[in-house]
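Hi R.,

Here's the chain you asked about this morning:
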Amino acid sequence: MSHPAASLSARCAAIGSWRLHPGHAMSLSPKKTAVLRIFCGQVWVTLGGPYEGALNEQGDRFLGPGDVLAVPAGARLVMEPVAAPGDTGPVHFDWSDAAASAAPSRFAREVVSPTRELGAALGQAGVATARVLRGLLGYSEYLTAGRGRVLGPYEAGHW
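And the predicted structure, written out as tokens:
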């Protein structure tokens, strides 16, 4: 039977994200409002001002898988992994600009995205049609039953 921490590390290894190993800390200071997303593992986060929102949104926090923290511009965030005993796997997280990670609007989701998909599908259909026509033209000598090409001595029956 495998160790739970080993299976957690193996499961998280496939995630394409930043990593922070136990025993290390990281300091981040965004120039624009940013978003911290935790994918795997737990971190202890200390958020230094300027503060926005309620008082309970200031200071120290523990974040785990699926947690998201908005970090205001100019704030200083320090994070450190909180590892269970025997867990040597890194914390996996994403750090991105808040504007880039905003949810798409309804129009973008229901009109723009399907329009892009339709354009890609029509492009693929055009490429496939051109390939079929090119293939058929390549077989034109066989479709004309010998017309327009020189027959070899064995095909013509002259030996």
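Residues 106-138 form the longest helix (33 residues).

Let me know if you need anything else.
M.
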